[in-house]
Amino acid sequence: MKSIFETCVPRDEVLQGELKDEMFAARLRDVIEQTADPVYGDPKRFFENTYPTEGLKTLIHEVLGRLSGKAPASSPFIRLETSFGGGKTHNLIALYHLAQGHAEGLPKDVVEKSWVPKSPWITAGLVGSDMDPSNGIEHGDLTTHTVWGEIAYQIGQARGYTILEKSDKELLAPGTQVLEKLIGDAPALIMLDELARYLRTAKAVQTANKKSDLAEQTVAFLMTLIEFAASKEKVCVVVTL
Question: Any idea what the Cα angle at residue 47 is, between residues 38 and 39, rounded to 5°?
Fold first, then answer.
């Protein structure tokens, strides 16, 4: 039997001593904000370096099948739950690139070309560790304080945020009517990464009326979001724990 040194050839960056350990720390927010290392931020390079596991293939089939309308029976809500380092964030990054219409470098047997959009679908991606229940997330002239506020901003920028600004500032979960105004019938992918971590810190933040806390309201919003997604043909919510 041949040894690994005889059967495998190291990548160029390994041979040249340019491999950075931090490049393996995938961050969904960096990809969305276009500040990620090219190995994650460049769709073609990302897919060329991604081995399409059966789990990833199934996830892509479920999500893109629903958003494209090619497999309408696919679930509107998907929960990814693996141990730390199990590839959850990597899978979300793959979904983000595909939802933006980028499939270059992805093996042809993973997803049919007609399932990939020609123009970007509505996409929002939140990471629990990036959310700040106490101080919010600053976006220039405005600050989002909740999961729903951040989703609205990512989807429609300042104009989208105004649709549920009151709910965001009072830390009270909005209803499906607000989501209807924000998304409507358009294909939409909502990704919530490390939500449990966010809920632990949100539990310490009281709502404006002092009758609830932000964690409770976030759970209420998640139920509303799932209900909304289930009522639409082309909306999918993906959550990681």
Answer: 15
